[in-house]
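Q: I have 214 residues here and want to know how they pack in 3D. Can you give me a structure?
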Amino acid sequence: MNPGYGWSKEFRIGLGGDVEYGLLPGLLARLRQESPGASLIVRRLEQDQLLRQLETGDISVALAYGPKMPGGLRRQVLRPLNLKLLRSDRSGHEVDLNEYCQRPHAQVCYSGDVTAYIDSELKTRGRSRHVEISLSQFSSLPLVMANTDLLATVPDYVADILVAYGGVRAQALPLQIPTVELAMSWDAKTDDAPQERWLRSRLACFLHEEDEVH
């Protein structure tokens, strides 16, 4: 069912930086095709502000990693987080856990501070890593990493875009972390709102298709 007469056709979505960078282009293409003329307003999510943003209507739905939020919110798990390791060096071997801990890292903090999960898992193994530079956006990674031994750990959909642009390549992450889930959250008050139900259905469908690709 497409949005019908009487709908505002204005969608307010909250996204973490990784989701905005890696998934928003495809999502926008889907919404433009299925709801021509609609306006999409994207807000950057901060985990400690997610509840307030939903309750005030600043956004109507959020895509973010992390635990279930308190209060009258609904939550639907969409996909697990899959991480990849980025590198720009030309060595043919794969980086193992020892090398992962020895080499310097570049990072971008994204929704739910997933980077904390990595450091926590390393700590349980008596390991650690050194983050040499923290960036505010993923597009800077290839420029910063060029001709260096820096490593970066990013979601698979971010890695795909950066590898396609060139300058970096990806491999499997030599570390298992606890399962982290990308979930869709919304205020219970919008459960039966036709426009919001339609939007949530399209988001769930799109993320399911992306998960199958990866």
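Q: Anything worth noting?
A: Residues 83-172 form a domain with the D-Maltodextrin-Binding Protein; domain 2 fold (CATH 3.40.190.10). The two ends are 27 Å apart (CA to CA).
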